[in-house]
Amino acid sequence: MAKKIGFLLAGMFFGFALSRSGASDYNFIYYMFTGENLKLALLMGTAIVVGAIGMIALKALGNKDITGKEIVISKKPLNTYTVIGGILFGIGWAVSGACPGTVLAQIGEGKILGLLTFAGLLFGTYVYALMAENNPKL
Amino acid sequence: MKFLLVDLWPWWLGGIAIGLLVPLMYYFFNTALGVSTGYGNFLKIILPSTKLKWLNSETYKNKFNWRFVFIIGMILGGFLSARVSGMPITTSEMGLFTERLDYSNIFYIIWFFVGGALLGFGARLANGCTSGHSIHGLATLQKSSLVATVFFILAGVITTFLIRLILFGGN
Questions:
Q1: Nearest C-alpha neighbor of A23 from the set A124, A108, A87, A112
Q2: C-alpha count within 13 angstroms, C-beta hemisphere, residue B151
Q3: Among B29, B95, B135, beta carbon nearest to A25
Q4: A31 and which of A37, A65, B37, B48 could share a cystine (Cβ 3.0–4.6 Å)?
Q5: Chain A residue whose CA is closest to B154
C-alpha cells in the first residue's frame, strides 16, 4: 500500500511538472518541431543529463535500491521495429501534439480533445496486441 | 510561490524535476520510468476476459499494478497544475490547432483519435515512448533509445512541416 501511494505521488509529481513546464501545451510541441521555440527540447536534454548523473550517483553508492536489492536497468531491444515504431510514434506526436505521458496531464487540465488522443492510444495498443497474437517477434 | 504555481516553469526547472524521476524510480521502486506500457492495463480493465496472449502476459497479470496508479497520478498532477495556475475546468481548445482551423467537431475527433492510435501502436512497436525511451533510455545510455528518439523527432519535424504547409496554409 505504501508503495502504491509512492507511485501515485511520483505520477502526480510527473504530471504536475509536465503541465507546469508547458509540455502538455500543443503550441510548445508544434514550435519545437518547427524549430521556433526549443524550450521543450532543452527541457528533455536537461532531463536526460540530470537522469544520467543521478544514475551514475546511484551506481557510485553501490547500485542498491531502498530495500538493499541490486538495481536492474531495464534494457530495451533494438531492431527494425524500433525504427518503424519510432516513425509512427513521431507522426502521432506531431498530429496529436502530445505523447503518452503529456496526454494524461492534458486530461487532468480538462482538455477534452486529450480524451480522444487517450482513446486513440488505447486503440493503437489494442491493434498491437492483435498483431502480436500471430507474430512471435512482437 | 507565483514562480512555481502560476508562471510556466523555465526549461531547466522542468528538466531537473523530470530527470530526477529516472534515478528516483530506480531507487524507490527498482523500476524504469515509463508510461506507455500502462495503456495495456487500461485495455485489460476494459476487456477483462480478453484471450489475447499479449494482454495475458506477466506484465498485465495485475491490471491495477503500479503502472495504473502512476497514470492516475499523472492525470491528478495535471489537474492540480491547472487549479493552481487558474486554467478553466474544461476546454475544447487545443492551442494553435483549434485556433487556426475552423472545421467541424468530427474532424477534430478523428484527427486526435488517429494521432493517439499512432502513438499507441508506435510506442509498442518501438518498446517505449518519450519517457521510457527519450528520457529513461537515453539517461541510461541505450542505443535502442537513441535510434527511437532520432526517429520520433525526425517524423515529428516532417509531419509538423506538412501540417503547417497543408492545413495551416504555410503560416
A1: A108
A2: 24
A3: B95
A4: A37
A5: A90
Percent helix, strand and coil across chain B, each to the nearest 5: 70, 0, 25
**Residue B22 in contact with residue B130, Cβ under 8 Å?**
no
Give me the residue from A66, A99, A109 closest to B129, CB to CB. Answer: A99
pLDDT higher than 90, residue B91: yes
As a whole number, mean pLDDT of residues B55-84 equals: 97
* Contact flag B18-A25 (C-beta cutoff 8 Å): no
> Do A33 and B160 lie within an 8 Å CB cutoff?
yes
Residues A125 and A112 in one domain: yes
End-to-end CA distance of chain A: 33
Q: Which amino acid belongs to residue A14?
A: F
Q: Which of residues 34-53 of B touch A (CB under 8 A)?
A: 34-36, 39-40, 42-43, 46, 50, 52-53
One digit per residue, the tens of pLDDT, for chain A of length 138 reads 889 999 999 999 999 999 999 999 999 999 999 999 999 999 999 999 999 999 999 999 999 999 999 999 999 999 999 999 999 999 999 999 999 999 999 999 999 999 999 999 999 999 999 999 988 888
Whether residues A84 and A33 share a domain: the answer is yes
Same domain for A121 and A65: no
Instruction: Choose the closest CB to B135 out of A47, A105, A124.
Output: A47
